[in-house]
Specification:
homodimer; mainly alpha; 10% strand
Protein backbone atom coordinates (compact mmCIF):
# COMPACT_ATOMS: atom_id res chain seq x y z
CA UNK A 1 0.00 0.00 0.00
CA UNK A 2 1.23 3.45 -0.88
CA UNK A 3 1.65 6.12 1.80
CA UNK A 4 0.52 9.27 0.08
CA UNK A 5 -1.30 11.36 2.69
CA UNK A 6 -0.42 15.03 2.98
CA UNK A 7 -3.22 17.28 4.25
CA UNK A 8 -1.08 20.40 3.69
CA UNK A 9 -0.68 19.60 -0.01
CA UNK A 10 -4.40 18.70 -0.31
CA UNK A 11 -5.49 22.03 1.15
CA UNK A 12 -2.88 24.14 -0.65
CA UNK A 13 -3.58 22.72 -4.12
CA UNK A 14 -7.37 22.85 -3.54
CA UNK A 15 -7.15 26.49 -2.41
CA UNK A 16 -5.09 27.40 -5.50
CA UNK A 17 -7.47 25.64 -7.92
CA UNK A 18 -9.83 28.62 -8.00
CA UNK A 19 -9.03 31.72 -10.12
CA UNK A 20 -10.65 34.16 -7.65
CA UNK A 21 -8.61 32.75 -4.77
CA UNK A 22 -5.38 32.99 -6.78
CA UNK A 23 -6.26 36.60 -7.67
CA UNK A 24 -6.95 37.38 -3.99
CA UNK A 25 -3.50 36.05 -3.09
CA UNK A 26 -1.94 38.10 -5.90
CA UNK A 27 -3.62 41.27 -4.56
CA UNK A 28 -2.44 40.51 -1.01
CA UNK A 29 1.07 40.03 -2.40
CA UNK A 30 0.95 43.52 -3.95
CA UNK A 31 -0.58 45.25 -0.90
CA UNK A 32 -0.19 43.57 2.50
CA UNK A 33 -2.71 44.24 5.26
CA UNK A 34 -5.76 45.09 3.14
CA UNK A 35 -9.28 45.30 4.59
CA UNK A 36 -11.74 42.70 3.32
CA UNK A 37 -13.93 45.31 1.61
CA UNK A 38 -10.92 46.90 -0.16
CA UNK A 39 -9.73 43.44 -1.16
CA UNK A 40 -13.15 42.50 -2.57
CA UNK A 41 -13.67 45.72 -4.57
CA UNK A 42 -12.15 44.75 -7.98
CA UNK A 43 -13.84 41.35 -8.09
CA UNK A 44 -17.09 40.78 -9.98
CA UNK A 45 -18.47 38.62 -7.15
CA UNK A 46 -20.40 39.43 -3.96
CA UNK A 47 -18.72 40.20 -0.63
CA UNK A 48 -20.12 36.98 0.96
CA UNK A 49 -18.57 34.99 -1.91
CA UNK A 50 -15.21 36.68 -1.26
CA UNK A 51 -15.59 35.88 2.46
CA UNK A 52 -16.08 32.19 1.61
CA UNK A 53 -12.97 32.22 -0.58
CA UNK A 54 -11.06 33.83 2.30
CA UNK A 55 -12.28 31.03 4.59
CA UNK A 56 -10.79 28.44 2.21
CA UNK A 57 -7.51 30.39 2.00
CA UNK A 58 -7.44 30.79 5.77
CA UNK A 59 -8.07 27.05 6.33
CA UNK A 60 -5.14 26.34 4.01
CA UNK A 61 -2.96 28.70 6.08
CA UNK A 62 -2.44 30.99 3.09
CA UNK A 63 -4.15 34.03 4.61
CA UNK A 64 -4.41 35.39 8.14
CA UNK A 65 -7.20 37.74 9.25
CA UNK A 66 -6.88 40.29 12.03
CA UNK A 67 -9.60 42.48 13.51
CA UNK A 68 -8.57 46.00 14.45
CA UNK A 69 -11.59 47.93 15.72
CA UNK A 70 -14.34 47.29 13.21
CA UNK A 71 -12.02 46.50 10.31
CA UNK A 72 -10.81 43.02 9.39
CA UNK A 73 -7.50 43.11 7.52
CA UNK A 74 -6.00 40.22 5.58
CA UNK A 75 -2.37 39.23 5.20
CA UNK A 76 -0.76 36.75 2.81
CA UNK A 77 1.06 33.77 4.35
CA UNK A 78 2.76 32.10 1.41
CA UNK A 79 4.75 29.52 3.39
CA UNK A 80 2.42 26.50 2.74
CA UNK A 81 3.14 27.02 -0.97
CA UNK A 82 6.72 25.86 -0.39
CA UNK A 83 5.64 22.23 0.07
CA UNK A 84 3.52 22.46 -3.11
CA UNK A 85 6.46 23.86 -5.04
CA UNK A 86 8.79 21.15 -3.72
CA UNK A 87 6.29 18.52 -4.84
CA UNK A 88 6.13 20.01 -8.35
CA UNK A 89 9.93 20.39 -8.52
CA UNK A 90 10.28 16.57 -8.59
CA UNK A 91 8.72 16.66 -12.09
CA UNK A 92 10.68 19.65 -13.39
CA UNK A 93 12.98 17.50 -15.54
CA UNK A 94 10.02 16.63 -17.81
CA UNK A 95 9.71 20.16 -19.20
CA UNK A 96 13.37 21.17 -18.91
CA UNK A 97 14.43 18.02 -20.83
CA UNK A 98 11.84 18.86 -23.48
CA UNK A 99 13.34 22.35 -23.85
CA UNK A 100 16.84 20.85 -24.05
CA UNK A 101 15.70 18.49 -26.81
CA UNK A 102 14.10 21.39 -28.71
CA UNK A 103 17.27 23.46 -28.40
CA UNK A 104 19.36 20.51 -29.60
CA UNK A 105 17.02 19.99 -32.57
CA UNK A 106 17.13 23.67 -33.59
CA UNK A 107 20.93 23.65 -33.33
CA UNK A 108 21.18 20.43 -35.32
CA UNK A 109 18.72 21.71 -37.94
CA UNK A 110 20.59 24.95 -38.60
CA UNK A 111 23.80 22.90 -38.92
CA UNK A 112 22.22 20.61 -41.57
CA UNK A 113 20.83 23.59 -43.50
CA UNK A 114 24.36 24.97 -43.82
CA UNK A 115 26.79 22.17 -42.92
CA UNK A 116 29.91 24.16 -43.81
CA UNK A 117 28.76 27.22 -41.91
CA UNK A 118 31.36 27.32 -39.14
CA UNK A 119 34.31 26.93 -41.51
CA UNK A 120 32.78 29.05 -44.28
CA UNK A 121 32.01 31.79 -41.76
CA UNK A 122 35.60 31.61 -40.65
CA UNK A 123 36.82 31.72 -44.25
CA UNK A 124 34.65 34.81 -44.87
CA UNK A 125 36.42 36.55 -42.05
CA UNK A 126 39.81 35.57 -43.47
CA UNK A 127 41.31 37.77 -46.23
CA UNK A 128 40.86 35.97 -49.59
CA UNK A 129 44.53 35.39 -50.28
CA UNK A 130 44.17 32.03 -52.01
CA UNK A 131 41.61 33.23 -54.60
CA UNK A 132 43.62 36.27 -55.64
CA UNK A 133 46.14 35.48 -58.34
CA UNK A 134 49.36 36.35 -56.63
CA UNK A 135 52.73 36.83 -58.21
CA UNK A 136 54.01 33.49 -59.51
CA UNK A 137 57.25 32.25 -58.01
CA UNK A 138 58.15 30.60 -61.29
CA UNK A 139 58.38 33.95 -63.08
CA UNK B 1 -11.67 44.31 -12.71
CA UNK B 2 -8.94 41.77 -12.32
CA UNK B 3 -8.11 39.41 -15.17
CA UNK B 4 -7.33 36.16 -13.43
CA UNK B 5 -8.66 33.38 -15.64
CA UNK B 6 -6.40 30.43 -16.34
CA UNK B 7 -8.18 27.14 -17.03
CA UNK B 8 -4.84 25.28 -17.17
CA UNK B 9 -3.96 26.36 -13.62
CA UNK B 10 -7.52 25.61 -12.40
CA UNK B 11 -7.40 22.06 -13.76
CA UNK B 12 -3.78 21.37 -12.74
CA UNK B 13 -4.17 22.53 -9.13
CA UNK B 14 -7.56 20.77 -8.80
CA UNK B 15 -6.07 17.53 -10.14
CA UNK B 16 -3.16 17.74 -7.68
CA UNK B 17 -5.41 18.45 -4.67
CA UNK B 18 -6.16 14.75 -4.21
CA UNK B 19 -3.62 12.42 -2.51
CA UNK B 20 -4.58 9.39 -4.64
CA UNK B 21 -4.10 11.37 -7.84
CA UNK B 22 -0.69 12.66 -6.66
CA UNK B 23 0.28 9.08 -5.80
CA UNK B 24 -0.86 7.87 -9.24
CA UNK B 25 1.39 10.50 -10.87
CA UNK B 26 4.29 9.47 -8.63
CA UNK B 27 3.85 5.82 -9.70
CA UNK B 28 3.72 6.82 -13.37
CA UNK B 29 6.89 8.82 -12.84
CA UNK B 30 8.65 5.71 -11.50
CA UNK B 31 7.34 3.35 -14.19
CA UNK B 32 6.15 4.80 -17.48
CA UNK B 33 3.58 2.96 -19.62
CA UNK B 34 1.80 1.01 -16.89
CA UNK B 35 -1.53 -0.77 -17.46
CA UNK B 36 -4.49 0.62 -15.51
CA UNK B 37 -4.87 -2.57 -13.45
CA UNK B 38 -1.15 -2.61 -12.53
CA UNK B 39 -1.35 1.07 -11.66
CA UNK B 40 -4.39 0.53 -9.43
CA UNK B 41 -2.99 -2.48 -7.53
CA UNK B 42 -1.27 -0.79 -4.53
CA UNK B 43 -4.19 1.56 -3.83
CA UNK B 44 -6.81 0.78 -1.19
CA UNK B 45 -9.60 1.98 -3.51
CA UNK B 46 -11.69 0.25 -6.18
CA UNK B 47 -10.70 0.09 -9.86
CA UNK B 48 -13.68 2.30 -10.90
CA UNK B 49 -12.49 4.92 -8.37
CA UNK B 50 -9.00 4.80 -9.89
CA UNK B 51 -10.57 5.16 -13.38
CA UNK B 52 -12.36 8.32 -12.23
CA UNK B 53 -9.13 9.75 -10.84
CA UNK B 54 -7.45 8.95 -14.18
CA UNK B 55 -10.27 10.83 -15.96
CA UNK B 56 -9.50 13.95 -13.87
CA UNK B 57 -5.76 13.60 -14.54
CA UNK B 58 -6.43 13.06 -18.24
CA UNK B 59 -8.71 16.14 -18.44
CA UNK B 60 -5.92 18.15 -16.83
CA UNK B 61 -3.51 16.85 -19.49
CA UNK B 62 -1.36 15.17 -16.84
CA UNK B 63 -1.90 11.60 -18.07
CA UNK B 64 -2.37 10.08 -21.51
CA UNK B 65 -4.05 6.72 -22.05
CA UNK B 66 -3.35 4.39 -24.96
CA UNK B 67 -5.15 1.18 -25.87
CA UNK B 68 -2.97 -1.62 -27.23
CA UNK B 69 -5.07 -4.74 -27.86
CA UNK B 70 -7.15 -5.20 -24.72
CA UNK B 71 -4.77 -3.32 -22.41
CA UNK B 72 -4.98 0.39 -21.63
CA UNK B 73 -1.63 1.83 -20.60
CA UNK B 74 -1.07 5.20 -18.92
CA UNK B 75 1.74 7.65 -19.35
CA UNK B 76 2.65 10.71 -17.29
CA UNK B 77 2.60 14.10 -19.03
CA UNK B 78 4.06 16.50 -16.50
CA UNK B 79 4.22 19.57 -18.75
CA UNK B 80 1.05 21.32 -17.41
CA UNK B 81 2.78 21.37 -14.01
CA UNK B 82 5.26 23.92 -15.37
CA UNK B 83 2.66 26.71 -15.35
CA UNK B 84 1.66 25.77 -11.78
CA UNK B 85 5.28 25.87 -10.68
CA UNK B 86 5.84 29.24 -12.37
CA UNK B 87 2.80 30.60 -10.55
CA UNK B 88 4.13 29.39 -7.17
CA UNK B 89 7.64 30.68 -7.93
CA UNK B 90 6.33 34.26 -7.75
CA UNK B 91 5.84 33.71 -4.00
CA UNK B 92 9.15 31.93 -3.37
CA UNK B 93 10.73 34.96 -1.69
CA UNK B 94 8.32 34.60 1.26
CA UNK B 95 9.87 31.36 2.49
CA UNK B 96 13.43 31.98 1.29
CA UNK B 97 13.46 35.38 3.08
CA UNK B 98 12.17 33.66 6.20
CA UNK B 99 15.04 31.15 6.01
CA UNK B 100 17.53 33.99 5.48
CA UNK B 101 16.19 35.80 8.55
CA UNK B 102 16.45 32.58 10.60
CA UNK B 103 20.04 32.02 9.44
CA UNK B 104 20.91 35.64 10.28
CA UNK B 105 19.34 35.27 13.74
CA UNK B 106 21.22 32.03 14.50
CA UNK B 107 24.48 33.62 13.33
CA UNK B 108 23.84 36.74 15.38
CA UNK B 109 22.85 34.70 18.45
CA UNK B 110 25.99 32.53 18.44
CA UNK B 111 28.06 35.69 18.04
CA UNK B 112 26.44 37.30 21.10
CA UNK B 113 26.89 34.13 23.16
CA UNK B 114 30.63 34.18 22.44
CA UNK B 115 31.55 37.61 21.02
CA UNK B 116 35.25 36.82 20.73
CA UNK B 117 34.62 33.48 19.05
CA UNK B 118 36.04 34.19 15.57
CA UNK B 119 39.36 35.49 16.93
CA UNK B 120 39.51 32.98 19.80
CA UNK B 121 38.80 30.13 17.37
CA UNK B 122 41.61 31.40 15.19
CA UNK B 123 43.96 31.65 18.18
CA UNK B 124 43.10 28.02 19.11
CA UNK B 125 44.24 26.92 15.67
CA UNK B 126 47.47 28.90 16.01
CA UNK B 127 50.40 27.22 17.81
CA UNK B 128 50.67 28.73 21.29
CA UNK B 129 53.99 30.46 20.78
CA UNK B 130 53.23 33.61 22.73
CA UNK B 131 52.33 31.75 25.96
CA UNK B 132 55.47 29.62 25.93
CA UNK B 133 58.37 31.39 27.57
CA UNK B 134 60.86 31.57 24.75
CA UNK B 135 64.57 32.30 24.98
CA UNK B 136 65.06 35.90 26.06
CA UNK B 137 67.01 38.08 23.68
CA UNK B 138 68.49 39.95 26.63
CA UNK B 139 70.35 36.89 27.84
Amino acid sequence: MVNFQSPVLDRTFAALADPTRRALLARLDEQGGVSVSDLARPFPVSLPAIMKHLDVLSDAGLVTRKKVGRTVTCQLKAEPMEQAMNWLAKYERYWTEQLDRLAAFVEDDSWQANPASPSSAASKRRPKRSTKPGPSRKK
